[in-house]
From TrEMBL:
It comes from Lupinus angustifolius (Narrow-leaved blue lupine). It comes from the Eukaryota. This is F-box domain-containing protein. Residues 7-54 form the F-box domain. Coiled coil: none annotated. The lineage of its organism: Eukaryota, Viridiplantae, Streptophyta, Embryophyta, Tracheophyta.
C-alpha cells in the first residue's frame, strides 16, 4: 500500500503554531519584517499568538523611558492576557508597573531588572502577582526588606527569587541581614535563590536554611560576610547546591539556574 503524506505549507499552519515559530525571531524582525509578508502574518503579529513571552531586555537597557512605556503597553496589549514571561530593564514610572500587573494575569516569570521600583510600588502591585513562580528584581536599589516581605506574603507559590546587586552597591557598607530575614520568614517554598553581592552574613544564610527547607540552589557569590562550612552544609542539606561566596564563573551556575532569560 502506498503511503502518502500531506505536508502543510507555511501559510497553512494554524496561527498559534506560526506564533510559536515567530517567537524565535528578534523583536525587530517580528515588528518590522513579518507584518510585511502577508495579511495573515500581520494579523498574527498584531494578535496574542507570539506575545506569550516578551523579552525586551537588551532593547530596553538604554531606552528612552517614554519609548519603553509605549512599547510595553503595545506588546502587553497584544498578548490579550496570555503573557507568561516578561523580561525588561529600567522601567521608570509607577504607571507602567501598574499597567503590567493589571494586564498580565497569567504571568509566571517576571524579570524587572535595574528598574526604578520602590517599596511603595511593590506594596501596590504585589497583590496582583499571586501567580508568579519566579521573580528577578536584580539591581533594583530602591527596594529593601519591606518590599521582599510584601512579595513573600502575596506570592505564595514563588519558587525562584533573584536579588543580585552590583559590587559597587556593597562596597564599604556594613552587614545587613534584614533582606535575608524577610525572605526566610515569608518565602518557605523557595527552591532557587540568587543573592549575589548582598550585604548579609552567615547568620542571614542560616536563617534562610532553617525556614526555606525546599531550597535547591543558593547563589551567594560576592557575599563576603558569609562564611560557610560546606562539609557541614552538605551533610545537613545534601540536595542543596551553593555557589560562592567566591565570585568565580561556574558552569554549574549556567546549567542549573532556571530559565534562559
Amino acid at each position: 500500500m502506498e503511503v502518502t503524506s500531506h505536508l502543510l505549507r507555511l501559510d497553512e499552519l494554524p496561527y498559534d503554531i506560526l506564533g510559536m515559530i515567530f517567537m524565535n525571531l528578534s523583536l525587530q524582525e517580528r515588528l518590522t519584517v513579518i507584518p510585511c509578508v502577508c495579511k495573515s502574518w500581520d494579523e498574527i503579529i498584531n494578535g496574542p499568538y507570539c506575545w506569550q513571552e516578551i523579552d525586551i531586555g537588551d532593547w530596553s537597557r538604554c531606552c528612552d523611558p517614554n519609548k519603553l512605556d509605549r512599547m510595553l503597553e503595545m506588546l502587553i496589549t497584544r498578548s490579550s492576557g496570555s503573557l507568561k514571561k516578561l523580561r525588561v530593564f529600567e522601567i521608570q514610572t509607577e504607571r507602567t508597573f501598574t499597567f503590567v500587573v493589571e494586564n498580565a494575569s497569567s504571568l509566571k516569570i517576571l524579570r524587572l531588572i535595574r528598574c526604578n521600583v520602590t517599596d511603595v510600588i511593590v506594596e501596590q502591585i504585589s497583590p496582583r502577582l499571586c501567580m508568579i513562580s519566579f521573580l528577578d528584581m536584580s539591581y533594583c536599589t530602591k527596594i529593601g526588606a519591606y518590599a521582599l516581605e510584601i512579595i513573600g506574603k502575596n506570592c505564595k507559590i514563588l519558587e525562584g527569587l533573584k536579588r543580585s546587586m552590583h559590587p559597587i552597591d556593597s562596597v564599604g557598607k556594613p552587614v545587613q541581614n534584614d533582606e535575608s530575614y524577610a525572605i526566610a520568614s515569608t518565602m518557605p517554598n523557595l527552591k532557587h535563590l540568587g543573592m549575589t553581592y548582598n550585604l548579609m552574613d552567615t547568620h542571614g544564610v542560616l536563617q534562610i536554611f532553617s525556614n526555606c527547607l525546599k531550597l535547591e540552589i543558593l547563589d551567594v557569590r560576592g557575599c563576603w560576610g558569609v562564611k560557610l562550612d560546606k562539609v557541614m552544609v552538605k551533610q545537613s542539606f545534601p540536595k542543596l547546591k551553593i555557589l560562592g561566596p567566591s565570585p568565580e564563573v561556574s558552569l554549574i551556575y549556567q546549567s542549573i539556574w532556571p530559565g534562559k532569560w
